[in-house]
Design brief:
54% helix, 15 helices, 2 domains, alpha+beta, 11-stranded mixed β-sheet, 383 residues
Length: 383
């Protein structure tokens, strides 16, 4: 610590240059923290998905429909505990800019498949008895001020009912807590039987079958049997585990891992040259000062360590600020709404610290070595 004043004075010799270099490093590590945090967060979320649930979709695409007649056949496959379905409704409330993630389903069976959903039994019974009933998530109810007993109009840009309208009215019969599945989980359910009877087209079609298994170890066998059952039929199926489905949906947005690493790599590569240039200029401007230190008895190695410490302090401090800002962004309401209970993984912060040390060493070692090799007489003479 007794040499800290020397390091600090050298770091702030040109305040403007130091400030702008720090700002560049902060922005670089803020970007690193955000991209890698989201990337690692997705990976962690995928690894935690339920392994005893399968999703059955049309082989040609998840938006293509499958016959509702597949349901009893899937239910009879050995090892299947429960089966429900989703038919995408694509709703919105009052304005198309206020989307409502609505799905038509069999709510009784759905609650058997999604065991972590918290719902009162009487709400499930009310849903089964109310043709136009709807179950909504707690967060959605709080957002729009809805409560049990309300009748709400939900518009859709896809489905026209038999009266010729794109606005459907539903009676809220219950609420549920699906926070265990994250903010992206569907939060508005209507009765499939009512939806199928009232729509003008697409009758008898669903978009997903959700299958709960008795034994997760049988997932591969059950998946194969389901797909073999509908091979060469009018609508062939693709059966995947929950994590595989989520990964395939992310792939539609591009390879997130590659994109994140490519952007971060380009930014840090540029940062390496910026920091190295700053340190090289700093040492070049202090040639005579470093020579004086050597004259006063500082060894070549000690001078090298002082310059490397200066580079390390610059990079680590700025990187810590950048990573800290990224962590705060993850706690923001906007990101929490988008991703659910999402925080920066500790692994990302540790990786950021390691990269900061690497950048500091690579950018600081050449000027530090130059300072070590400095000839006192030549330096004092200005040569």
């Amino acid at each position: 610590m007794k040499y800290f004043s020397l390091v600090w004075a050298g770091l702030w010799r040109k305040k403007t240059r130091t400030v702008f270099t720090m700002i560049s490093i902060v922005i670089a590590f803020l970007l690193f923290g955000l991209l890698q945090g989201i990337n690692q967060g997705f990976s962690t979320a995928l690894s935690r998905l339920d392994v005893d649930r399968l999703y059955v979709t049309a082989r040609t695409g998840m938006t293509d429909g499958m016959p509702i007649s597949y349901l009893p056949r899937i239910r009879n496959v050995a090892g299947v505990r429960a089966v429900s379905m989703w038919a995408y409704f694509g709703g919105y409330y009052q304005d198309a800019r206020n989307p409502v993630p609505a799905f038509a389903t069999d709510a009784v069976e759905l609650m058997k498949v999604y065991k972590e959903i918290k719902i009162r039994p009487e709400y499930i019974e009310a849903m089964a008895k109310t043709r136009t009933g709807a179950l909504i998530g707690d967060a959605l109810a709080a957002k729009h001020g809805w409560k049990v007993g309300d009748r709400v109009p939900i518009g859709t840009s896809i489905w026209t009912n038999k009266s010729g309208s794109n606005t459907w009215e539903f009676d809220i019969v219950g609420t549920f807590d699906s926070s265990a599945y994250g903010a992206g989980f569907p939060s508005f359910y209507l009765n499939y039987s009512y939806f199928d009877e009232a729509r003008q087209f697409g009758t008898g079609q669903v978009h997903y079958y959700i299958v709960s298994l008795q034994d997760p170890k049988q997932a591969q066998r059950v998946s194969r049997e389901i797909d073999d059952m509908f091979a060469n039929s009018s609508v062939e199926t693709r059966t995947q585990t929950e994590s595989a489905l989520a990964q395939s949906q992310l792939k539609q947005l591009g390879d997130i891992n590659f994109i994140a690493n490519a952007i971060v790599g380009a930014v840090l590569f540029t940062l390496l040259f910026l920091t190295a240039n700053t340190m090289m200029q700093s040492v070049r401007e202090r040639t005579s000062e470093l020579a004086v230190l050597k004259t006063l008895g500082y060894s070549d190695t000690k001078v090298l360590i002082l310059v490397l410490t200066e580079s390390l302090l610059l990079c680590l401090f700025a990187a810590a600020v950048g990573i800290g800002l990224a962590a705060l962004v993850f706690e923001s309401p906007a990101l929490q709404t988008l991703f659910g209970n999402f925080s920066m993984p500790l692994f990302v912060a540790s990786m950021g610290a390691g990269i900061a040390v690497f950048v500091a060493f690579v950018s600081g070692f050449p000027p530090a070595w130059r300072a070590r090799q400095l000839n006192i007489v030549d330096a004092l003479a200005g040569r």
